[in-house]
Amino acid sequence: MKRSLFAPALAALALACGPSGPDTVDPGTIPFDPKRPTPGGAAEVAPYSGTNADVLTAQQTYPTGLELHRKLVMRTCSGTNGVCHNQKEYPDLHTPGTFTASIGAPCNVQSGNAEGVFDRCERLGDRFRFAEQSFREIEIGYFKLILGETPEFGTGQGPDDETPGLHLYLHDAVPVTQARLNATGTFIRTFVNEQGNVQTLPFASYETNWWVLGDKKHLFARVSDNQRDTVEGLVASGIVQGDQNRNGVYGARILGNTVPLINPGKPEQSYLVARLRGYMERETAPGTRETVPGTRMPLANQPPNVPDMLALMCFIEGLDPAATQWNLGSAIDYNKCSYKENPSALSLAGTGDSWTGRVLPILQSNCGGCHGGTNPQAGLDFLTGTAEEIRQRLLKPSSQKPTVQLVLPGSLDKSYLFLKLTGDSSISGVRMPINPLNGNAALPDAELKSIENWIFLAGASGT
Ligand code: HEC
To answer: Helix 306-317 to helix 53-61 angle, to the nearest 10 degrees?
Structure first.
């Protein structure tokens, strides 16, 4: 019975294969190899041969990039729809596919505010020239579109920095003699085409009245009512700004400066890692650090622990920079990973019980997402300033309970910060740290203990 459907076709196949084939074939014997091919890299690597507990935990918890995505990235960054890095937020990290797409992808593409952009995320800007003029295209630093109708100017009058209209700030002065001209501004992009050749493409243009202001690096374009759609379309076309954070540094012009979200082979030079740490190692001067602007990640839930960080670093280190596709299913090679020698150095929460070595890193990695940046919650900022400035701030009265200091050396029950961390009944507001994702508001015991030791035993000293 069971052969009746297959036998004729297989018999025909056997015939076609030549006279030496069998004249009947049992479909149950069709050779089938259940092992699937593993595209794009080693699926199996030699397991870690040492005894370090953190490495063993990391290897067991995160054998492959897929687990890293599912257990660490999903938990820390993209768990709840609409809260964090999901479809709406750049980078979108919520599926293995989008996580893989962040390998080599630019960072700070969608930064809410200009100051939040890290110089090393800046890309080569688009360029600008007037179609009627023959000067070389000039890189665009940044632009501002100020809404509203550009006013008519009387003699001797002209636009300033705040005049409604389109403002372009360029890297070099425009070599024209007129202070004002009617011209077609052309926006040009350079890209590498499918054949690998560099091409330039004028992708937008805008004909209007232009003013050449100040040092001739600032152009102003009139936007009248009937031009509004054109200009909004131009802005929506996504002009790449070479100095997106407007600080005068053109990040991409500095050789080797530009970093992607995940830099294959280079965990220290990966923006994602830098946002967890709050700093990025300088590639040209290892051991020195650049502060990364923007809120410390993760915003409000428990930051990665040592095995978590180790897995992330080893995963990135193991990505082949020469590849164009990566397979998250490949095993993370802990045995080859350079971080296996001293994983505890990766701790975001530091070591020991000292202020700079442990307590400050705990506060910054657990609380900096809310207590830092441009609008620190409850006016309490753990990120801005030197370690000593931050410590001095804690020796002042609490804003919620001005009769109590945030930290009173040697006294736990008179240290409001500590009471907030233990959820003492005397506090206003809620226990810290707030975790909007799961409502769980408690530091791990070991971190709480370190803060306790620092206040009680070490007298909240600065060393
Ligand atoms: C999700 C955001 C968030 C996180 C994370 C967070 N806080 Fe807060 N914090 C707040 C808000 C909001 C307030 C004010 C409302 C309240 O106290 O309930 C506050 C108030 C405080 C206050 C009172 C300040 C004063 O001067 O009276 C302290 C102390 C504090 N937080 C400490 C911490 C510490 C320490 C951590 C990390 C272990 C932390 N917070 C993590 C949002 C946060």
So the answer is: 70
Q: Which atom of ligand 1 is nearest to the CA of 300?
A: 5
Reported as a single tens digit per residue, the pLDDT across 212-230 is 998 999 999 999 888 888 8
Name the strand (E) or helix (H) holding 219.
strand 218-221
Q: Is 195 within 8 Å of 213 (Cβ atoms)?
A: no
**Cα angle for residues 74, 343, 62 (degrees, 5° grid):** 35
- Determine if ligand 1 sits within 6 Å of the CB of residue 238: no
**Strands 127-130, 138-146: pairing kind:** antiparallel
**Tens digits of residue pLDDT in 17-61:** 334 444 554 555 555 555 544 444 455 789 999 999 999 999 999
For residue 369 and ligand 1, the question of a CB distance below 6 A is answered with yes
* Beta strands per DSSP E along 360-416: none
Encode pLDDT of 351-362 as tens digits: 889 999 999 999
Distance from the alpha carbon of residue 74 to the mean position of ligand 1, in angstroms: 24
Are 245 and 144 in contact, with CB atoms under 8 Å apart? no
Residue 306 and residue 344: Cα distance in Å, rounded? 6
Structure tokens at 460: 């909240």
User: Can you tell me which atom of ligand 1 is nearest the CA of 397?
Assistant: 26
Strand bridging mode 198-213 / 218-221: antiparallel
Considering only CA atoms, which residue is closest to atom 2 of ligand 1? 370
pTM: 0.78
Ligand 1 pocket test, pick from 360, 371, 391, 422 with the greatest ligand atom count within 8 Å of Cβ, gives 371
The atom of ligand 1 lying closest to the CA of 443 is 38
Residue 421 CA to ligand 1 center (angstroms) comes to: 9
Q: Rounded to 5 degrees, what are φ and ψ at 169?
A: -115, 120
Torsion of CA 353, 359, 360, 364, to 10 degrees: 140
